[in-house]
Amino acid sequence: MPAPADLPDLPATFRPRRTRVVLLSTGAALLAVFTVIAVALPHDGPTAWGTGDRATFVGTGLVIFAVLAVLSRPKIVADRDGVTVVNLTVKRRLEWAELVRVNLRPGDPWVYLDLADGTTMAAMGIQPGAGRDRAVRAAGRLRALAEAYGTGRAPGGPGTPGAPGGDGGAGTD
């Protein structure tokens, strides 16, 4: 187990910052471009554009911005009580006891969390596509927190009552 001095300060937030900046900047720029186009369209003449046409341009810019904002949403927030995982449309709170393992294998698009109920959950807040070294360091920090604060056990694994070699965590042999 890592020494407490090696652990990140809590609360710790993990998110793909570069991806978030690019997505939100692109969304804002596109919204501005669509708005300028809506204002610049001719008011009269053979190709006059009405208020509805202009509103459609601005509305399209808003929809694009909203989609990019949702794509920039993923993050993981760790505190003393557990982890909050925010993915594209789902937010889930996990107690440390529910978290068994933090995985980031070569080729994975993001971190996967193995949970005590035997399921696996994607945690999109750490993505190697935006910087492999940074993602590996972040996954290591989250793993260190899980090992320091977590008590989760894989179903049927060591430390689970009734498991071969398991004692329920009592520590007696």
UniProtKB/TrEMBL annotation:
Pfam families, alphabetized: bPH_6 (PF10756)
All copies of domain Low molecular weight protein antigen 6 PH, residue ranges: 73-143
Annotated transmembrane regions: 21-42, 54-71
Spans annotated as Disordered: 149-173
Keyword flag Lipid metabolism: no
Listed InterPro entries: CFP-6_PH
Gly residues composition-biased segments: 153-173
Keyword list, A-Z: Membrane, Transmembrane, Transmembrane helix
Protein name: Membrane protein
Organism (species): Wenjunlia tyrosinilytica
Source species taxonomy: Bacteria, Bacillati, Actinomycetota, Actinomycetes, Kitasatosporales
